[in-house]
Amino acid sequence: MAVKTVRIVIEGRVQGVWFRGWTVQQAERLGIRGWVCNRRDGNVEALFSGPAGAVDEMINACRSGPPMANVTSITEHPAEPPGEDGFHVTKSGGLEF
Fold it and tell me: Catalytic: which of 7, 20, 33, 39?
């Protein structure tokens, strides 16, 4: 099974709409490892690692997000797998690319 790991930045109305909590639920459902956080610039950043099909499904789900979100774009970058298991919310202000 091919493993895919990406960091994405989700732009639009994505803070204050439960995007991080929704992302944790979706990632756990799909068996994806990684994290999600609010960025200082008002966007959301996430690291997804797992079976390629599950990661692709997660990215596609993020194009809509939770009901109150309005996603305008997603930027995807290759990344290294996380050092820990599970999926969690991290501190605000994700790393810059």
Answer: 20
The answer as to whether 96 is a domain residue is no
pLDDT in tens, 16-70: 999 999 999 999 999 999 999 999 999 999 999 999 999 999 999 999 999 999 9
Query: Is 38 considered catalytic here?
Result: yes
Q: What is the CATH number of the domain that holds 33?
A: 3.30.70.100
Residue-number span of the structural domain to which 53 is assigned: 3-89
C-alpha to C-alpha distance for 66 and 22, rounded to whole angstroms: 6
The total number of structural domains in the chain stands at 1
Q: Is 39 a catalytic residue?
A: no
Record the pTM. Answer: 0.93
Q: What is the DSSP letter of 21?
A: H
Q: Which of 33, 38, 39, 43 is catalytic?
A: 38
Fill in the amino acid letter for 62.
Answer: C
Residue 97 counted as domain residue: no
Which residues, 6 or more positions from 53, have their beta carbon under 8 angstroms from its beta carbon?
none
